[in-house]
Design a protein that fits this description.
The complex is a heterodimer of chains A (459) and B (109). With 459 residues, chain A is α/β, with parallel strands linked by helices. Chain A is 23% helix and 26% strand. Chain A is built from twelve helices and 25 strands. Chain A has an eight-stranded mixed β-sheet, with helices on both faces. Chain A has a seven-stranded mixed β-sheet with strand order 6-5-3-4-7-8-18. Chain B is globular, with a radius of gyration of 13 Å. Helix content of chain B is 48%, strand content 0%. Chain B is mainly α. The chains are: A alpha/beta (459), B mainly alpha (109).
């Protein structure tokens, strides 16, 4: 397998093409032909390396340095809590850390820490190029983070090499490249020798869109929630992408129609992908859901429904969960269970939620149990059940049904209001904003199953 | 034009003996405005003064705030106009946002 850096060099990027963030940029030629680690990179040969960067551009640089050199590279998402690092170091058997900003907290972890400089040093000779294993974090797990293994071949399996000699796409994304969705965009840009404009959560949307227009972005990706935010921002000024891609959550008809109307000449594609299942399919007919004949069709990407949930067998899936207690990724036939429930109606498949109840709020996953645990700590609460509620802005929001210790104690409207506010305040102090319930409903009781568990069948 | 999909309980914004059309619109405006304020406070956001021309982007609220507002208004008014945006498209200003709910309430009765 050719390394990522070799593939970038092979794509012969234009000398002026850059990976750009609001305050800094690197040319693709610098990334392809110069090292930010220099001779010290040699100690990483065949080693397991954690990539923990402050900036996205640092992560891009680190991945190019390490693919083909490290035996295993582990890409930390931006929100990975520092307290989880010792666990990750153990599970992934990490030998060294590569970062872009020196930090005593990293040095305290007990493995060598290498800090990237701007690319400028000659790339050290490698005796042999290895097939680096890529470990990515699955989204939305509770407690300890969970890792899955990929290869560069699987990660880039959905990318078709450009055959035309015309102008190359200029990519941009609302995603952070340190997560699966954003990583796909980075890999598309690097393997195609294309410029890429990175996002910055601190940058106001109008400034971001002006920068994208200035940078000449033609191809833009994001979740439906990202795109709805753009639709509700007014005119995107000079930003006129020719290719608009949605993934990471369900693309509904209003967002597809809104984008069609805003960008009448753009190709609008919604894709289905996950860290575990890889990129599965794309839909470009402008309609929500996907054609039912995708199920059961032959080819490298196979899809089927099992007990209503979508299963995928494909060379683009990850290869396994990583860690001592990691369960199996595949069923006996080699399919990955996505956990997404599909309804088939009128020749069209539509997504009807998650089997395990995971709630997707604007691309961020929420496990009901973690929210219930917080609500149940409230002295007035006997039991709670948290579920997804469909929402046209973020796809879903968290909603909670709450049974009280003493339902008779709260009788007035003000009392209900105060209690709701008190539970919400508790959630907001203990959870990130997207995990706190958007609405709370008080119910007389919550149904239990025969096995004594909360009956989530109607959730 | 398709009828909007009405979720939840029927719209109950209009009370017995309430003033007609124009005042009804302003009742919805009052509820929408109140919802913007409580959501902003709950999410520790500084809400800009509400006017028809205020761009939602400049309101001080993020996507999650709007998601909460839409869920809350669905409970209060019984309509979710975003489920059938039709020709209206996504609202860009506060005035357009209020207009969506006023139009949905009109159609929903």
């Amino acid at each position: 397998m050719t390394s990522l850096r070799a593939r970038l060099a092979w794509a012969t990027p234009d000398p002026a093409s850059r990976v750009e963030a609001p305050e800094e940029s690197l040319t693709l030629c610098e990334l392809a032909n110069a090292s930010g680690l220099g001779p010290s990179a040699a100690i990483l040969a065949g080693r397991n390396v954690l990539v923990r960067t402050e900036r996205q551009i640092g992560a891009a640089q680190a991945l190019l340095e390490l693919d083909g050199l490290a035996g295993r590279l582990v890409l930390c998402p931006p929100d990975l809590a520092a307290e989880h690092l010792p666990h990750v170091l153990g599970v992934a058997e990490i030998d060294a850390i590569v970062t872009d900003v020196a930090a005593p907290s990293l040095e305290a972890l007990g493995v060598p820490v290498l800090v990237l400089a701007a690319p400028g040093a000659p790339i050290p000779e490698m005796a042999t190029e290895c097939d680096s294993e890529w470990l990515l974090f699955t989204s939305g797990t509770t407690g300890l983070p969970k890792l899955v293994a990929h290869s560069l071949a699987a990660l880039t399996g959905a990318i078709t090499p450009a055959l035309s000699v015309g102008a190359r796409p200029v990519w941009a994304s609302f995603y952070d490249i340190r997560r699966y969705g954003g990583l796909q965009v980075l890999l598309r840009a690097l393997t195609g020798g294309c410029a890429l404009a990175l996002c910055d959560p601190e940058e106001p949307l109008p400034d971001h869109l002006r920068r994208l227009a200035r940078f000449g972005v033609t191809h833009m990706t994001g979740t439906p929630s990202h795109w709805r935010r753009l639709l509700m921002s007014g005119r995107p000024d000079a930003f006129r992408p020719s290719y608009v891609r949605l993934s990471g959550e369900i693309a509904d008809q209003p967002v597809l129609d809104g984008l069609r109307s805003l960008f009448p000449h753009a190709q609008i594609v919604h894709a289905y992908a996950s860290t575990e299942a890889g990129v599965v399919f794309e839909v470009d007919d402008g309609r929500e859901g996907f054609p039912a004949d995708f199920l059961g069709r032959s080819g490298p990407i196979e899809m089927k429904l099992d007990d209503g949930s979508l299963r995928v067998r494909s060379p683009r899936t990850s290869t396994r969960y990583v860690g001592p207690d990691a369960g199996p990724l595949f069923d006996p036939e080699g399919f990955v269970d996505t956990g997404d429930i599909i309804e088939v109606r009128d020749g069209r498949c539509r997504f009807a939620g998650r089997r395990n109840g995971v709630i997707n709020v604007g691309g961020l996953k929420v496990h009901p149990e973690e929210v219930e645990a917080v609500i149940n700590r409230h002295p007035a609460v006997r039991l709670s059940m948290v579920r997804a509620r469909a929402n046209p802005i973020t796809g879903a929001v968290v909603t909670a049904d709450v049974a009280l210790v003493d339902p008779g104690a709260v009788t007035t409207a003000e009392g209900v209001c105060d209690l709701r506010a008190s539970i919400l305040a508790m959630c907001r102090s203990a959870l990130p904003p997207h995990k706190a319930p958007a609405t709370i409903r008080f119910v007389p009781e919550l149904t239990m199953t025969a096995g004594g568990k909360l009956d989530r069948s109607h959730a | 034009m398709q009828q909007p999909i009405i979720k939840g309980r029927p719209w109950t914004g209009r009370k017995e003996g309430a003033a007609p059309e124009v005042a009804e619109g302003s009742e919805i405006r009052r509820q929408v405005s109140a919802c913007f304020r409580t959501t902003a406070a709950g999410q520790d956001r500084v809400l800009q003064p509400l006017s028809d021309e205020l761009l939602l982007l400049d309101s001080g609220l993020d996507s999650l705030c709007f998601a909460i507002i839409v869920a809350e208004l669905e409970d209060q008014l019984g309509v979710d106009p975003f489920s059938d945006l039709d020709d209206a498209g996504f609202p860009v200003t506060f005035g357009e946002f209020v207009g969506l709910y006023e139009a949905a309430a009109q159609r929903g009765r």
